[in-house]
Specification:
Tudor, 27% strand, Tudor domain-containing protein, alpha+beta, SNase_OB-fold_sf, SH3 type barrels
């Protein structure tokens, strides 16, 4: 294992590809999203084949072999087409005529409800919306129709065994989600971040890091 080279300006590491500890015995392909300076230096990384993020000490990162760069990502960021966080200001729903534009993020309750919905299906099918693009940029988000698919049965067509989740999600979270039925292309839909406590909780995350996310084995 070859530790990563550290440039004099550590910000140059942001968006670079590395191998990061996925668990105690396995390293996964990852991309650096941010550098945090505490008692030592840490990186927030996203595992590009698993779609999960983690805080990892720079001392626990290793170089990615050049051959690994040629494999496409196995995880992609998507947005549920037609669904946006509800317009809420001081606890009140905004009217469409309001000139105020508060920050809108996905409420944790909506995120949890989506997880529960997806767990009810053995398979999930996604269909990219026209004008969505896929590139190598971390910020690219593909707008999709998302279908929950039941286990295929004899005599049941594929269309009958799947349920479109976009409007279903909007209905289940109707106090938290605006459903834009009028959208016809991906460019009409804005992208909103999920509400996150990562920054507020950074200290406790670092304190809870296992040894294998702080130093390389045998160090």
């Amino acid at each position: 294992m070859v530790p990563i080279e550290r440039p004099e300006n550590l910000s140059e590491l942001v968006f670079s590809y590395v191998m990061a500890p996925l668990n105690e015995d396995v390293f996964g392909r990852a991309r650096v999203l941010a550098i945090e300076a505490k008692e030592k230096f840490y990186a927030k990384v996203i595992f590009i084949d698993e779609g999960i993020s983690a805080i990892v000490a720079l001392d626990a990162l290793i170089e990615m072999k050049s051959s690994f760069f040629y494999h496409p990502w196995q995880a992609f960021a998507v947005a549920i087409f037609g669904c946006e966080p509800a317009r809420v200001l001081n606890g009140n729903l905004l009217t469409l005529l309001s000139k105020e534009k508060p920050d809108r993020t996905w409420d944790e309750a909506a995120t949890q409800e989506l997880r529960r919905m997806l767990l009810k299906f053995p398979f999930v099918q996604v269909e990219a919306i026209h004008d969505s693009t896929s590139t190598n940029a971390t910020g690219d988000v593909i707008r999709v129709l998302m279908w929950g698919v039941q286990t295929p049965k004899v005599g049941v067509s594929s269309d009958e065994s799947r349920i479109l989740l976009n409007p279903f999600f909007a209905f289940r979270c109707r106090a938290l989600v605006d459903y834009k039925r009028e959208f016809t292309s991906a460019v009409e839909q804005e992208i909103f971040e999920a509400a996150s406590e990562d920054q507020e909780d950074l200290e406790s995350q670092i304190e809870a890091l296992p040894v294998w996310r702080v130093v390389l084995p045998d160090q």
